[in-house]
Amino acid sequence: MKNCKFLLIGLAVLLLSSCAERKGNEPIATVRKKPNIVLIMSDDQGWGDLSVNGNTNLSTPNIDALAKNGAVFENFYVQPVCSPTRAELLTGRYATRLGVHRTSAGGERMNLNETTIAELLKQAGYKTAAYGKWHNGMQPPYHPNSRGFDDYYGFASGHWGNYFNPMLEHNGKIVKGNGFLVDDLTDHGIDFMEKNRENPFFLYLPLNTPHSPMQVPDAYWGAFKDKNLKMKYHGEEEEDEDFTRAALAMVENIDYNVGRIINKLKELKLEENTIIIYLSDNGPNGWRWNGGMRGRKGSTDEGGVHTPFFIQWKDSIPAGKKIKQIGSAIDLLPTLSNLVGIVPKTQKPLDGRNLAPLIFDKNPEWTDRSIVNHWNGKTSMRTQQYRLDNENRLYDMDEDRGQTTDVSQKFPKLADSLKKAKEHWLAEIVPLNSGTDDRPITLGHPDFVYTQIPARDGIPHGNIERSNRYPNNTFFTHWKSEKDSITWDVEVLVDGEFEVELYYTLKSEDTGVTLQLSQGDSKLISMVTEAHDPPLTGMENDRVPRMESYVKEFKPHILGKIELQKGRNPLILKTLKMDGDEGIDLRLLMFKRID
């Protein structure tokens, strides 16, 4: 009955807005199409990285305008890192239920028996697109094109090593980006809105900044590189002020692009019929001003999981409304389903709640709840007033946002009840980990032409090394012997013939490398005779030293064709013959179904 009631609320809002009048008494059509949705999510931006939240170190007028023209959730929560937040946002379910337990090596993938908001909207007649950092699975059927998105442009793994003209993909095919990545992603979003102005559309823009590497165009960096930061981190940890400057410069670039989205909606006369949401995927990626909250990215404390959350639907959602009740990324699917008037028929029960009563009602019927934050074996619980942290210390968040005073002895019954609730939650869900996750890499889905098998997902053997300890943007190097090899735990989904393309570099003195690719009884042998030895790049655009791998331009080479049989067998790449001292450096293998 409660779900029916909330559905009726959403439908009533649609009906009321369709009968409203524009300024100047210009009537809106009696029956109007379902509202469009633009969902913008930044990467590693803290709650405090906005001028609307009190940070005078930067100016974000376009994002601030969403808060002023829409509703603000003052206590909105995500998970401590990228992949789990993205999975929760898309499914309305806790990431621990979805198989998401890492940010690489396959642990970032959502289980296949889950329903996404994109799938629901697509079934309801929406055109759907995602442009940016996916980070919930690269190979179909984990790929965004197989999770409800008609169009995808960006990078499906985690962090990327170059934000200027980088190697990206468009619906599985490798392409080259155009200019600074956030600008490029926004260009695609604007083009998508333009093409679908007559259709209801869902545009998901998971932007890649201010995640490191700290790269931003000169115009933005120039305004920050020598700037005196008046608002600084409050804790004992040392703030890297150049890192902070770079992050804030990147946020100002995001703000510029949010303005471009809003202006395009106005130009298309779609602003009044478009729901715009803005949030971040976790806390800040450095120690910087964040409203005095404890913790940063990776932490289950308040500072690691408290995100800005603004929702604008002009002339429908009350402008400037501030909502104190706690909300979460798991609430987006049930809320958006309600706002567009569809019943969320998902394969699994939802953890999230429909937030529409909080958004529209002056005195909403709302029962208190708790929200769980979990990552890397650490768990905390947030109620409306309190947070029980991973160490079972209790904090009154209304009075002590910085989590400085443990009040568990003052409120022992409350602390005990939350501790038991946390234990029950962990016992019910039993999160996957690296030792229990046995899901293979999928290859050759019959409905998709391309399957990318990157170095990120491989296992090196012998002398071969990964270019960096953070896998997502790495390549394999240091191939010294014919005994060296790389393997991938692969399951071929359907029998088929594939053309295989190798992305490599090779020094001129080492040409003449003969490679063998095999899987089960299938083998492909090919010689690489053309040298390609570009330098490492990335450092020329970094504003502060990076922790990720540097990158280089990898050359595509057709290895040939191979017949693969359905089933799970390791994919093995080895060298049969080396004329020089080293073999190739490998970025990825691309399989193209040709049968």
Protein model, in words:
This protein is α+β, with helices and mostly antiparallel strands. It folds into three domains: 38-200 and 209-259 and 269-293 and 320-363, Alkaline Phosphatase, subunit A (3-Layer(aba) Sandwich), CATH 3.40.720; 378-429, no CATH class; 441-593, Jelly Rolls. The strands form six sheets. It has a ten-stranded mixed β-sheet, with helices on both faces. Strands 18, 20, 23, 25, 26 and 28 form a six-stranded mixed β-sheet that branches. It has a four-stranded antiparallel β-sheet with strand order 14-15-16-17, with helices on one face. Helix content is 22%, strand content 25%. The protein has twelve helices and 29 strands.
Helix and strand arrangement:
Elements: H1 2-19, E1 36-42, H2 61-69, E2 71-73, E3 76-77, H3 82-91, H4 95-98, H5 117-123, E4 127-133, E5 151-155, E6 167-170, E7 173-176, H6 181-195, E8 201-206, H7 218-222, H8 241-267, E9 274-280, H9 302-305, E10 306-307, E11 309-312, E12 321-323, E13 327-328, H10 332-340, H11 356-360, E14 371-375, E15 378-382, E16 386-388, E17 394-396, H12 412-429, E18 441-443, E19 450-454, E20 459-461, E21 465-466, E22 476-477, E23 485-492, E24 496-505, E25 513-519, E26 522-528, E27 555-564, E28 567-577, E29 585-593
Parallel strand pairs: 1-8, 1-9, 2-12, 3-13, 4-5, 4-8, 18-23
Antiparallel strand pairs: 2-11, 3-10, 5-6, 6-7, 9-11, 14-15, 15-16, 16-17, 19-29, 20-23, 21-22, 23-28, 24-27, 24-29, 25-26, 25-28
